[in-house]
Structure formats: structure tokens, C-alpha cells
Amino acid sequence: MVEKKEPAKGWPVIKGEFDVGDPKSCVAVATAGSHFGQWPIKAGAAISGPFHTENLGIEKIVANVISNPNIRFIIITGAEVKGHISGDALECLHKNGLKGGRIVGAKGAIPFIENLDDKAVKRFQEQVQTVYMIDVEDEQKITAAIKDCIAKDPGAFAGEPMLLEIKETKIGEEEEEAGGEVVAGAVPAGGVVSGMASEIMMIQSRIRLIKQDVKGIGYLNKFAMGWYAGKMEGVMIGLVLSLLLLALLFPQGVDLSTLRIK
């Protein structure tokens, strides 16, 4: 029987949009942009829920994980969030950590972290292993991953629960509440984007998405033109070959009026 510990009092210590199961379970399920409801909990997860941003959303996950030493695995799954790319950011935080307050290697728009220090990040990295299944929404596959983690449960982490204070005024908070998307851009030294700056970032996001759509349409047009050109080229080659074949078979020609071979 593996050793278990009591999580921090009142765990989960940071409230959010998630479902809670057995706090002694070793698995947390982070579902990015997907909402799975209760079935990950029924499969054995300690906590399961979405995280839409690559900053505040990730900070809440880390705070709830390191305040419960029993959690040793985090499954990163569900549909990736456009613009934020939060699933990738969480995996990068675990693999690469922070540099200058930014998640190293993250592809998201503004992966700037304010409420996690190096000590908290290191604890997160040491306490859990990640199971990266981003863009997977299949219940059977995710349930199997949960069961597999439970079967490999190493027991509670050696350290005691670590508590963090998460300030809610964050980069991307307005976009998360509005269901919007953001893109990379100039961020103040303090890391906070507010007022007109957030509106500008939202407009930049829309422009980027439009550019991506236009580029996609361009690729489709090029494909269609290439297909049509290839088709016409094939018709012409077939016609020429047919005429050459007729010339070889009937070197004297054909009397089309009588349809008799001369």
C-alpha cells in the first residue's frame, strides 16, 4: 500500500471551474478548452477541469497540485485553446520552467507568469509527471490513461503541501472571461495588460486569425489551379497519344465519308 498524505486544509485551495474527486488520488486531469464533466472523476482522478489561459489558468493548476502531495501525475488533454495554446504552455512549464517570468518555449500569446516563483515551479516539476494528450477528447483513451497512472502510483510526494497566493488580476483575464483569444505583442514590464492594451491585443488576434484564413484559402486556390492544370495537361497528352496511335494503325488514312479503310 503506497503512502498517502493529507492535502492542504480546504483543498483545492484555489477555486475554479473544475470537478473534485478523491484527494488521495494520484492523478489530475487538465482538459484545456474541453469540458468533460464528471467522467474523469468517476475514472479515478482527484481533480479535473479546463484551463483557458497560458498564465492565470496554469497558475491555478500548479497551486492546486503542489498543495496536494498525493498528486503525482497530470494528464494534459482536451482541445487546445486557440491563441492561448494553454496545453502546450503547461507542458513547457513542466519541461523548461521560467526565464524572466516567461514560460520557456511556450507558443501561446502571453505566457507570462506572476504568481509562481522558481521554488513553486521546481516543486511542480519534481512532484508530478505529465502525460501529454492534447487534442484528445476520447473518453476511453483518457480513462485508460487515468487507470494507467493509478496503477503506477508511487505514493505521496516527500514534501509537505505548499501554499501559494494567486492574484486574480492577470494577463489575459479579460480575454478568458469573454472567451476571447490573444496574440503575442508588447507586454508591460509588470506583465499586466489592461484597458486599451487588452482591446488592442484582441484586435491583433482577430487580424492574425483572418490572415491565417486568407493563407489557407490561398493554398486551396493553388491546389485547385494545379489540379485543373494537371487535368488539362492529361487530356492533351491523351489526345496526342490517341492521334499518334491512329496514325500508326492506319498509315493510309480513313475515308470518313464511307467509314472504309483505303
UniProtKB/TrEMBL annotation:
Molecular function (Gene Ontology), one example: cobalt ion binding
Job of this protein: Part of a complex that catalyzes the formation of methyl-coenzyme M and tetrahydromethanopterin from coenzyme M and methyl-tetrahydromethanopterin. This is an energy-conserving, sodium-ion translocating step.
InterPro entries, alphabetized: MeTrfase_MtrA/MtxA, MtrA
Superkingdom in the source lineage: Archaea
Family (UniProt): Belongs to the MtrA family.
Subunit structure: The complex is composed of 8 subunits; MtrA, MtrB, MtrC, MtrD, MtrE, MtrF, MtrG and MtrH.
Pfam family, one: MtrA
Protein name, UniProt field: Tetrahydromethanopterin S-methyltransferase subunit A
Membrane-spanning ranges: 235-254
Chain sites annotated for binding 5-hydroxybenzimidazolylcob(I)amide: H84
Catalysed conversion reaction: 5-methyl-5,6,7,8-tetrahydromethanopterin + coenzyme M + 2 Na(+)(in) = 5,6,7,8-tetrahydromethanopterin + methyl-coenzyme M + 2 Na(+)(out)
Topology in the lipid bilayer: Single-pass membrane protein
HAMAP family (alphabetical): MtrA (MF_01093)
Biological pathway: One-carbon metabolism; methanogenesis from CO(2); methyl-coenzyme M from 5,10-methylene-5,6,7,8-tetrahydromethanopterin: step 2/2
Gene name, Swiss-Prot/TrEMBL: mtrA-1
EC number in record: 7.2.1.4
Keywords: Cell membrane, Cobalt, Membrane, Methanogenesis, Methyltransferase, One-carbon metabolism, Transferase, Translocase, Transmembrane, Transmembrane helix
One of the protein's GO biological processes: methanogenesis, from carbon dioxide
Subcellular location as annotated: Cell membrane
One GO term describing the cellular component: plasma membrane
Required cofactor names: 5-hydroxybenzimidazolylcob(I)amide
Cofactor stoichiometry and binding remark: Binds 1 5-hydroxybenzimidazolylcobamide group.
